[in-house]
Fold these 4 entries.
Entry 1:
Amino acid sequence: MSSVNLYSIEPQELRLSAHLEINSAFIQDYRKSVRESQKRFWSRFGVTQSRGSRFELGATIPKPVMILLRLYFEKIISDDDILRVSQPHPPVRWPLVISLDRSGPFGSP
């Protein structure tokens, strides 16, 4: 078996999900089937309602948004996952390290 063939072997799940075509009609049909407003649906992906409306009418969806949509529709990420990373986190408090040694850089004067 050549090295090209080794890398083309994928699990059955991945091959099936790769055929899911995510386009404006699919997104709009899905959003309407779950009875979500454009504002609520698109905000989960960091997109405004007006921009999401343009995507549903056929505007090109940027690659980062399309990646998120694909992960969402293939159930790799959930609403909980998106909510967890989109909420602000408190700043990390690193321990303050202050040397009380007042001597010079080469030891005591």
Entry 2:
Amino acid sequence: MTKRSAAWLLLLASAVLEAVWATALGQSEGFTQLLPTMVFAVTATLSMTGLGLAIRSIPLGTAYAVWVGIGAALTVGWAMAAGVEPFSLLKVLFIAGIVGCAAGLKSLPAVATSPPDRSDRSDRSDTKVPA
């Protein structure tokens, strides 16, 4: 398994944990229920740690978009399956769009890019511009 593949698996696991902590947060009733509060604290820590490790190999913007998208889709899907949120075919279609976009980001080639060269900028403070 390549380092990049491992990072994507870690990111996926972190996104699943995001759905767990989001669900536990809702069930904690403002952190007044002990078990859901503990589940929230542990899974939020693990989820953030996984995201932090994944961005060593995956660009931050891409990793964050996938993490949030998959986590949100799983959270809504679970809420609909549990009857906490009403089921809607249109909602499922939009959630599928989120998942599809996350998969699309994963399928993009891993091209390392460097920041643009700013050495030729004419608005540098040490450059005198005639009035």
Entry 3:
Amino acid sequence: MTQAKNSPSIAARLIRLVLGVVAGAVLGAMANMGVLIASSGLFPPPPGVDINDVASINANIANYSVVQLLCPFLAHAIGTLVGAFVAAMVNGRSGHGVMAALIVGAMFLSGGAYMVSVIPAAPLWFDALDLGVAYLPMAYLGWKLTRRGGSPS
């Protein structure tokens, strides 16, 4: 099978995919941290909690309010959305936008699953909401937002 004229090579599409995923993961992580920092200023953790110490979080997780728990969920969701959007934008013309977005979502999901394992005292509703909504659905939404311009790419 011959490649169409002006069509990017497989190597070029692979490089674009990798670059998009890396850019998306980095910018998504930055968005995640930005939301975490901003939300911890607005809704600080319970007194005595060191947010840099998992043992401190586990020991005090029962003292967190629903709003304090929703802050990391929003950080995870917004970080994934931003990362997936960036990855999909970089790959829009290559036709691999959805793949790039979902790879970023899967990467963030693996981080979320790890956090669930290291903070076992977190409420089940939080774990279910976080793992079920903040990652793959937000990655898909990030890709869909790139499609709103009407471009068929």
Entry 4:
Amino acid sequence: MLADKIVISAKAKDGSEGLISLSPELGNYTINFPPTLKCKSGDLLTLFCPVCHQNLASSKHINLGMVYADDENGQRFEIFFSQIVGEHSTVKMVGDNVELFGNDVYKYQDHFDKPRQMF
């Protein structure tokens, strides 16, 4: 996190790179792209941790990235999100509890256990 944004390193298919910033609010798909990153809606980005440079790709689906997050009570959960520019899909998993967010999440919901809540 930097200020009130999540910062992730991104690489486009043409090799251009840059740091993108995202809202930490699940279901808020506001993203700031730097001018150095040449991408358009529908492009698959490769996302990395900006500190350790670990690839954030998920084993659930080639289009999904994954990060761990902790809530205010210290409970750890997994956040899966689309790496496709303009696609609105986020999944929050805490143990067996699955929460789905975004208009495009239906594309990936079969890759998760039966969802209990949809937002």
